[in-house]
């Protein structure tokens, strides 16, 4: 798989879960990959070693996506160290759950800073470096389409905002040959949401396929959007949710 040979990608929150799967898949497709992490340096380093074992360069960047300076520095640092930027994947997110009378301004500010402001600022910084064929791909959530349980209003709101960001940026950057798309994963088997967790059966039952996704299944769609075969696809919202939103 070499569809991304010569390309450089930045994956925010690329040290674990879906982000790690995306970083590894882009590297398998030929890209050099930078990834950010906030707390788990060991996991990020493990992903980087696997990228390098595949013969690609890897760059690990500590960055709290709630910090605007860190977001911009991650983009500029990728270009400085790896020489260019072709693909931005906005994956880093926080998942704060609570009913509307339980979450205060601090939780709202943190959620919007990481899940909404950071993708906007990262795209803004990346747009200065992306050329013809550039890609911006954000990772949303199935609960932007359907909120099946109480306590999801804040998170759902933050992920729904990415629809507007995707469509607005798609229109703005299209004349430059840069595509902008959004992937909404459904329930996915990660450390933070394991497929054998206490509520997993009920959650899986909300999908048409009756199961969780593997992180690699989400990463495969991102890799397609990042590649040359998706050059005419922009402003799209792609639900990779096993039929959750049907």
From TrEMBL:
Q: Does the keyword Transmembrane apply?
A: no
Query: What terms describe the molecular function in GO for this protein?
Result: oxidoreductase activity
Keywords, in A-Z order: Oxidoreductase
Keyword Cell cycle part of the UniProt annotation: no
Residues forming the Ketoreductase domain are 7-206
Regarding protein family, the annotation reads: Belongs to the short-chain dehydrogenases/reductases (SDR) family.
- What is the name of the protein in this document? 3-oxoacyl-[acyl-carrier protein] reductase
